[in-house]
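Regression check, zinc ion case 314:
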Amino acid sequence: MNHFKDNIESNKQNKSVKEKGNIIKQVKPCSYDEFIFEFKTWTDTWYRKIQLSVDRNLSLFPGNTGDYGELFGSLITGKLGTQSGGSGFDLSNGVTADEAKMCIWVQPQKCKCGTDKQQKTLSFFKNEKCECGRDFKYVHDSRWGIDSKAGVEYNDLLDNYIIQLIEPVKYSHDNMEFIYSCYFIDGKDKNFHEYLVNQNEKSNKSNNCNLVPYSFDFYRGHPKLKVRLNIILTENDSIIEKVFWNLNNEKVEKMPFSVLKQNEILLLDNSFKVVNIKENLMNLEKNFNGNPADFLPLRNKNLDKDRGVTSRKI
Ligand SMILES: [Zn+2]
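Current build output:
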């Protein structure tokens, strides 16, 4: 049974709606059960992929993140793929578009003992010490890559950035439990637009914004949580637990004070005392009315920073 196909078929009659001369091609956003049915076609393969990755030193897990990011985005919005292959937005109803991104914080462990910029790496799921004697460290620095040029030049077509994250519950080689989160950032959000314009106009090197999950720039774009799931892997399949599901949720995730720099805290409250920072910060956050995202300016960034020379490992 293919729910998505059924959904398209049953919506064919509704397709001939015209807007600004364009025909809207869109299906109904899926139900929770339909979403989980498709979601599990991916996560049910994870346990085996992890075993094979460990046995053969490959990175098979989780696999196809870009494709699945687009599928889940399409299920949630009802917009269909554009088959644009990177030269246009991922999903569209013929009139407006969404861009879908997936970021994975299950990354290889690293040890700094490598030469140049090339650190030694080990699979997330292996339990070994580095040959230099140190423990490998778990990192989570993957980002959503957002094309600022497209976001600025074709802003009138853009509805939402659908940004998705897979995180491990524990940073440990035997972790078999993960969290999936899906947020929307409004393509017309003033702050987020400013962030894209800054990258597009000021960087000579790249149009790509590297948006870090749970960062200052993330919260400043007024993200709204739509889906959060717990994924527990078993030897045969996966168990999915609903943590949050509300495709109509318009409540913005409030920017936590922990992402702020001292000068930003002072902008919010100039009576902030730098002594006992932790305690004062907690009190300030508790008593602060509103969302810091609405008060703080875009950070000045060195967009042309040289990332250094990377070298091939073998
Ligand atoms: Zn090492």
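Comparison notes: The first strand starts at residue 18 and ends at 19. Residues 171 and 205 are 34 Å apart (CA to CA). No diff flagged against the previous build.
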